[in-house]
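Hi P.,

Sorry for the delay on this. The queue was packed all week, but I finally got your sequence through. Input first:
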Amino acid sequence: MRASSAHSTCRALRQSSFHVENTTDSHNATLARSLSSASLRARSAAAKWEQEHSLQLAAKSTLLEEVNSLKLEAKELTDAQKLELLGKLVKLKGFSAVQNKLVNLPEEFGKMVSLTKINLDSNGLRSLPESLGNLKNLKDLSLTRNRIGWLPDTFRNLVNVEEMRLSFNRLHSLPAEIGYMTSLVRLRCGNNMIQELPLEFEKLTVLEDLSFNSNQIATIPLVVGNLGRLRNINYDNNPIKSPREDVLAQGSESVILYLQRMYQSALSKGLEILSANLRH
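Then the structure:
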């Protein structure tokens, strides 16, 4: 009797163990299928996100290309790298980033080839990218109240600029290449450390307003007399020795007429205009 009971117990245990094993195998299979399904869903979701992200980037890029005016004034911008996306703004016509803390500009700046107006007043700019010369449609350039010490040679390409404001910087000179900027109507470069005006000013024949007050200029070159459209000249607070003090005291209009008379006189006498100075 006891042997039969023990035998029944063993059989029951074996059946129970078999059931547990079957249940475990079934559970593992179900878990594997769930994990596989989850993995597929994750991969599908990742692929969908990547596709949507790509579409968003493409849409953003397209939108950037369509922007034609952008103002980033008083935004505490300090890092030029944050402006690298500007290279995508190929249809941008006006850009203003006044009162920030920019010390330089990325080369991508020169890719905004449709720009006609730039205002970067009141930053901390120390230099300008060579690529700025690519902006051949530019007409108005304002860079006042920065720390710019020199202008790149590529300024020779800015042949359509009509107004350029460079006051309150650290310029010691204006490059000879400024003579190529023959569309200049107004040039303001006061409050710098400029020691002389380049003789290439002779080519700026449509210039009407010239301001170089508060610099270190000792001589107004005779070639300024060739600027037939010049209506105003601001030369205050310079150690000017030529023209004479009594001529300067008569004011802007009189100085312009004096320079024009002297220039014509020098031409008629066959003097070398490029090296002639006022010595009277």
